[in-house]
Amino acid sequence: MLELATQQAGPFTGWLASQLQSGLPVAPRAVVNARKPRHGTRPAPIMPIPERVAYRSIVDFLLGAEAPVARSREDYLSFIRGPVDYVMHKAEGIRTVGLLLDDDEIKYVVKSDLSAFYEYIDHGVLGRSLIARTRNVELVEDLMSFLAEIEGRSYGIPQMFDASDRLSELYAQLIHDQLSRRGYLVWRFNDDFRIGVSGFDVALDAIEALSEEARSLGLIINEQKTVSPKFATYAIATFGLDSVDDEIPSDEQDEVEAAVADYTEMFGDADDAVTLLQRAVSGDYEWNLSDVSQDQVGQLRRAIWSVVRERDARAVPALVPLAVFVPSLTPAICRYAEALAEERQQEVAGVVDTIIARVSLGGWQRLWFNRLLRTSKLLLQPAPGDTTTRIRFAEACAGDGRHPATRAEAILALAGTGTVSVREIADFLVTEPRALASWYVMAAGECVRTERDQKVLRGISGSDPLYSMLIDALS
């Protein structure tokens, strides 16, 4: 949606500058609860376009002299190899693994991360750290006020934004520095820590130290992910992690650690991927889709992206059981169906019809399937199968006010079908979160069929300069 503003960069920049000077009324973010493996969820925020641009601009201005945040998958691989590389550099010339692993300084490696890190970053602590680095008190105070309005509270920053990554890096570095001050060998990637220690008793001390420093900043460590493997075990597991695949869409890379774990060993060809998916859905080779581990979810995701890349239709029969038992794979499932839709629309339509009719879908999943219905043109004639049932599914999502982002995606999907009017969309622009305005403006533009519709669209355009610029970008 940000592309629409980019197409009107000149007018948009001038308008936003005037809004910031006069006091931009900050609209709260909208949040989609994306499913994680097993039963967890992750908040995926949607920020209004003006606020998103302003947020990035302020942070870039404050931290313009800082080095870019190293968040690539290659950077993550370098991080997890950190303890091993440290010992290898010390032991230059050693050629046997046995001697390499016999290091007195690192006998154990503490692995841990912070729970819900972005959600609990304290604005007061963050502001003081920014002032110490930038000495720009006024702009930092403005940024903290902005974050408080976006979040509706005095802590938390929106995840999945570059500006938030830069701010979170400063916050996590406070913990890193305190651990280093205590004398620990620390490696860090965002909120993920590795600490090299000389014994198991020291590992326990390191965990306590990490927990103490995190608590001092309003954070807690993730106890389930906190482990202390022997260095030999860690090193053997780490060797060989030296390449990653670059073809995974950005919306599947919101967590770089997961991306590396999932894609470091991309399937060599589609045959292997199809075989794994077939075994998983049939229950062969110790697979049980109703109780998959996080590692198995990673294998399934890798397999799906392999067949997406090859546009291999042999995995289509696996989509329904995967949607039923592994909902966190929904984005990959929909991307796969979308990749096949042009050449195999009938097969894709059959799968989608089965899923939306028979599978219990959460709001986040329904959002993705509404998007698939739109991008694959499955709501429009002459799409194969029962378009009426699909339209009813989208209408049900549009009528469900519990999930505003899903409603917005459903309205956009319905815009070309004639089942929603420009007048209805104009009302949604008033009642729904402003963060979703671009969805409704796009939908309104697609609904215009009569002179009366055109007048309503002109009214929408005249009611808000932002809407006017978005509509101009669509025309």
Q: Please, could you describe this protein's structure?
A:
It is a single chain. This protein is mostly helical. The chain has a domain of 195 residues. Helix content is 59%, strand content 6%. The strands form 2 sheets. The protein has a 3-stranded antiparallel β-sheet, sandwiched between helices. β4 and β5 form a beta hairpin. α7 packs antiparallel against α8, α16 packs parallel to α18 and α21 runs antiparallel to α22. The two termini are 15 Å apart. About 5% of the residues have low confidence.
Average of pLDDT: 87
How large, in whole angstroms, is the Cα Rg?
A: 25 Å
Count of helical regions = 24
Strand order of the largest sheet: 3-5-4
C-alpha termini separation: 15 Å
- Which ranges are low-confidence, i.e. pLDDT below 50, for 5 or more consecutive residues? 242-265
What portion of the residues fall into strands of 2 or more residues? Answer: 5-15%
**Globular, elongated, flat, extended or rod-shaped: what is the shape?**
flat
Estimate the helix proportion, in percent.
Answer: 55-70%
Order of helices and strands: HHEEHHHHEHHHEEHHHHHHHHHHHHHHH
Secondary structure class reads mainly alpha
Largest sheet: 3 strands, antiparallel
How many E-type strands?
Answer: 5
